[in-house]
């Protein structure tokens, strides 16, 4: 395309002499004129003037182009030579404009050379498409984006802009393409029997490093979240967090503890090593969790436990869940549709401390002061904030900062960062008071006054004086050659074994890659869970006897409702979230404990018991307000509880401890892991790493709405869709779908922590 011109053909193209002289003086040609750089008609001769040559046509300056210059670009840096500007700053004549005097001048009437192609034009043959300002060309095989450094732009003179010194190298920084590509995410593995699923060996985004310490396998560091920014440059693009495969630890006939936090696991093993039993270790671990993981549990919550001693026909079951206060009536709550989690009526009497005392009184070897010592030491000296706690405190900051005990969770008025050292002196003083005074250190004095104030009088001092812990008869079902024990109502403990009984009587396949395996497990759970809200309530008002919940004849009726070829519509139970810690301990001397403790909804009711460092649970939100309902809020009653630990025996020998947190997800997750272990024959590592699914809600509008970890086999997903399930993918590793903690006891005791939670750990002594 010809460039438009304001001149007419035939106009004189020669500039006036004054204009040419002024332009030469600007460029310094007068000072640079020398015989060293001139020849022919331009050479100096006696009597000759510099302008004694024919007029020359004006040379058009090449248009400035953006992007990376190629070889033909006149701005491209070339070796220093005559006829170019000296790089050292000495002006020299430029022979480009000083053409040979006999060379004819260029006339404007001649056709101009074709315009170069720009981005968006068709690509010229033999050329390379140029990039306009602000345009990003597509990648055409130039390698991985992290391996391409941006080329510095050039200024108008052709010199590179200064970028400053390169960033210093540090130990461990990648130094080349091979190092950068080494940590690429491998293809998604298939679940295989006998292995852990082939998961990547690192977890660097969470600051994770396997800590090699004798007698312990841990799955999480407690350092800062995210990648460290490289000095002098931007942060590398973060990769999707890939937890490592779980490492099962084998303790032989020594102690094994699996908890949601490595510090709690260590405390349990240290307590057993000091002469304590499995119960001593479990209570010590629970107290530590209340310090380092208040988003899951603490002294202000409830507790359930199953304890088995080899040689006993059945385990002992403890229900230490609190009752509703007597300071009000249901009619006073008639204006509410449901009980909000931060309402005073959501606070029931905390039962955890009563549970500690009942467990230690019956099965403990150590005194209370020795058991609580690890927790007191951590609360006073401080501990590293886990990523999970940092996220919880940041999310709940607006709800918690105005509470009297918030200053120890929010030092300097803001949430602590992951890896920061956090001290809890208020809670340490409360634990010391409990260790010295026993029950009166919690249910009387400043803690009791704080509870009554936080509950606005709905919980009274008389309510706190009534013991909350109670030994109850466990319920059981025969599954896969073992006997599964759990808690009766007001716990939903029957839900893990009941679907497994239905599943085992439907002739399911043993291959977890078969869609029918998951279909039958999903349908078995849906059939049983549909009636949960109608049958689980305070034992004094429950419509069914506890043993009837796992009656084989009743479970067979559920099995007849399941279709092998399609989904069936069932009513949906009311969804209930979770904020719980499950742990299991085996002391190597024949005693094992399956132990669960909870604040519900994370940090419970978002209210603290004064300035004591105790945060109160909100289990009262598990009540309903429907008149005549067995689970209606009533003074002195216990609400429906999602806590459902399990303990498995063979004869009079303990074989398996299994439990998790997760609200409604608890029985679903336990049913999957138990089926993988006892029906499909997977080992602990493979069963823990297997992709999981959950049912958040189901009913007539959505017969079976599943969320699943995206690592689940595509063949399984397609098969479930064909059977009528509605599926939606979640993350590859869902932190909230665990941690499942398990210990398997055969000739040796073996424990495995869930890789989904960075702090979960299995320890041996």
Would you identify the regions where 5 or more consecutive residues have pLDDT less than 50? 29-51, 80-101, 117-127, 140-149, 151-163, 176-240
**Quaternary structure state of the chains depicted:** single chain
Number of helical elements = 20
Helix content: 10-25%
Structural class determined from secondary elements: alpha+beta
Radius of gyration: 38 Å
Give the tally of β-strands: 20
Distance between the termini: 84 Å
Mean pLDDT: 78
Strand content: 5-15%
| Main β sheet profile | 8 strands, antiparallel
For the largest sheet, list the strands in their spatial order.
1-20-3-11-12-4-5-8
Shape: globular
Description:
With 765 residues, this protein is an alpha+beta fold. It has one domain (216-227, 240-764). 24% of the residues lie in helices and 12% in strands. The protein has helices at residues 17-27, 29-32, 177-181, 262-273, 278-292, 352-363, 368-381, 387-395, 397-400, 425-437, 440-443, 445-454, 461-465, 497-504, 515-529, 532-535, 552-561, 665-678, 684-689, 714-722, and strands spanning 216-218, 249-252, 256-259, 302-309, 316-320, 383-384, 421-422, 470-472, 475-479, 482-486, 580-586, 591-598, 646-650, 653-659, 693-695, 705-709, 726-730, 741-745, 749-752, 761-764. The strands form four sheets. An eight-stranded antiparallel β-sheet has the order 1-20-3-11-12-4-5-8, covered by helices on one side. The chain has a seven-stranded antiparallel β-sheet with strand order 2-19-18-14-13-10-9. Strand 9 (475-479) and strand 10 form a beta hairpin. It is globular, with a radius of gyration of 38 Å.
């Amino acid at each position: 395309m010809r460039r438009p011109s304001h001149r007419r053909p035939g106009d004189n193209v020669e500039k006036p002499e004054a204009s040419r002289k002024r332009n030469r003086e600007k460029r310094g040609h007068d000072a640079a004129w020398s015989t060293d750089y001139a020849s022919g008609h331009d050479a100096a001769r006696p009597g000759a003037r510099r302008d004694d040559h024919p007029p020359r046509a004006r040379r058009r300056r090449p248009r400035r182009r953006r992007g990376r210059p190629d070889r033909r670009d006149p701005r491209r840096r070339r070796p220093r030579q005559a006829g170019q500007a000296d790089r050292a700053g000495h002006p020299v004549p430029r022979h480009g404009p000083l053409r040979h005097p006999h060379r004819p001048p260029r006339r404007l009437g001649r056709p101009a050379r074709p315009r170069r192609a720009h981005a968006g034009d068709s690509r010229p043959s033999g050329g390379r498409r140029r990039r306009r300002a602000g345009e990003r060309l597509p990648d055409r095989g130039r390698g991985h984006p992290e391996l391409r450094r941006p080329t510095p732009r050039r200024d108008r003179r052709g010199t590179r802009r200064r970028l400053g010194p390169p960033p210093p190298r540090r130990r461990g920084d990648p130094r080349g393409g091979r190092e950068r590509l080494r940590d690429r995410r491998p293809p998604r593995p298939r679940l295989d029997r006998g292995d852990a699923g082939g998961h990547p060996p690192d977890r660097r985004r969470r600051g994770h490093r396997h800590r090699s310490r004798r007698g312990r396998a841990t799955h999480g560091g407690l350092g800062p979240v995210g990648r460290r920014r490289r000095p002098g440059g931007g942060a590398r693009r973060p990769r999707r967090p890939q937890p490592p495969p779980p490492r099962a630890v084998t303790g032989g006939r020594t102690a094994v503890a699996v908890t949601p936090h490595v510090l709690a696991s260590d405390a349990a093993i240290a307590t057993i090593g000091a002469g304590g039993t499995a119960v001593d270790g479990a209570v010590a671990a629970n107290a530590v969790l209340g310090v380092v993981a208040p988003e899951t549990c603490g002294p202000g919550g409830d507790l359930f436990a199953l304890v088995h001693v080899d040689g006993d026909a059945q385990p002992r079951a403890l229900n230490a869940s609190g009752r509703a206060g007597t300071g009000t009536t249901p009619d006073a709550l008639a204006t509410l549709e449901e009980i909000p989690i931060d309402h005073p009526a959501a606070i029931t009497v905390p039962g955890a401390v009563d549970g500690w005392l009942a467990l230690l009184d019956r099965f403990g070897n150590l005194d209370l002061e020795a058991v609580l010592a690890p927790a007191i030491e951590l609360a006073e000296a401080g501990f590293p904030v886990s990523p999970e706690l940092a996220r919880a405190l940041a999310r709940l900051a607006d709800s918690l900062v105005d509470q009297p005990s918030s200053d120890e969770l929010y030092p300097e008025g803001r949430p602590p960062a992951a890896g920061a050292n956090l001290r809890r002196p208020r809670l340490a003083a409360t634990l010391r008071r409990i260790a010295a005074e026993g029950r009166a250190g919690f249910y009387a004095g400043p803690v009791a006054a704080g509870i009554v104030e936080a509950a606005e009088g709905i919980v009274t001092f008389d309510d706190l004086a009534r013991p909350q812990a109670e030994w109850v008869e466990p319920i059981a079902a025969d599954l896969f050659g073992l006997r599964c024990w759990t808690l009766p109502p007001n716990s939903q403990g029957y839900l893990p074994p009941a679907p497994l009984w239905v599943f085992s009587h439907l002739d399911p396949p043993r291959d977890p890659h078969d869609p029918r395996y998951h279909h039958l497990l999903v349908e078995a759970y849906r059939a049983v869970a549909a009636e949960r809200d109608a049958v689980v309530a305070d034992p004094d008002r429950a419509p069914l006897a506890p043993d009837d919940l796992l009656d084989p004849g009743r479970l067979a009726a559920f099995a007849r409702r399941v279709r092998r070829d399609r989904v069936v519509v069932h009513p949906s139970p009311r969804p209930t979230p979770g904020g719980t810690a499950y742990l299991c301990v085996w002391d190597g001397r024949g005693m094992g404990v399956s132990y669960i403790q909870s604040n519900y909804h994370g940090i419970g009711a978002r209210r603290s018991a004064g300035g004591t460092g105790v945060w109160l649970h909100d289990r009262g939100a598990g009540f309903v307000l429907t008149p005549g309902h067995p689970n209606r809020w009533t003074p002195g009653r216990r609400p429906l509880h999602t806590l459902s630990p399990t303990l498995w025996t063979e004869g009079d020998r303990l074989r398996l401890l299994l439990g998790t947190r997760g609200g409604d997800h608890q029985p679903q997750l336990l049913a999957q892991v138990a089926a993988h272990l006892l029906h499909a024959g997977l080992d602990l590592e493979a069963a823990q790493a297997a992709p999981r699914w959950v049912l958040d809600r189901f009913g007539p509008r959505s017969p079976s709405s599943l969320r699943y970890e995206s690592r689940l086999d595509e063949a399984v997903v397609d098969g479930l869709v064909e059977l009528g399930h509605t599926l939606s993918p979640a993350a590859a590793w869902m932190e909230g779908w665990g941690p499942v903690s398990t210990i398997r006891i055969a000739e040796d005791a073996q424990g495995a922590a869930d890789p989904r939670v960075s702090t979960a750990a299995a320890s041996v002594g």
